[in-house]
Amino acid sequence: MQNFIEEQTFENKIFSKYEFEKGDYELCKFINCDFQNSDLSNSQFIDCEFHDCDLSSIIVSDTGLQNVHFKDCKMLGIDFEKCSDFALELNFKNCQLNHASFNNKKLAKTVFENCKIQGVDFRDCHLNSAVFNHCDLLNSTFLNANLNNVDFRSAKNFSIDPEKNNLSGARFSLFTVEGLLHKYKIKIE
Fold this sequence. Notes:
By secondary structure, the chain is an all-beta fold. Helix content is 2%, strand content 20%. It contains 1 helix and 11 strands; from the N terminus they run βββββββββββα.
């Protein structure tokens, strides 16, 4: 039987040095915790918050992430494509998500605010109505992605091929339109 942990706050814990206690976490807060390389597989996080945590290289196979908020977190190399699809809902603020993978995930209305999202895989991802507010998307891959109504107006360093992604209703500023024309080697001055 899996542990049920509700409305607890975990502060300054180093989960990377011992095995993370698998379970169902609901309405919990994790503050300044170190999860590096921890195995969070088969755990559930519902209405949880992570603040100032290092979640780099965590394992999230069949992990449930329902209405989970990450703020000021380091999250390098996470393979989100392996987490559970059931009620998946994530939000990121001031996070470093470099080299993560969201391949084939449904992330409608996800908000990425002031994040480094470099080298991230968004292939076959459903991001309709997502927001990339002041995000750096250098070397991130968008291929066969549903980007309908996505807000890229303040994003930078992205390269999106309009012929290989669905961009209906996506929003760009004059400042960001170069990311759509990159493949044509057009100079905008």
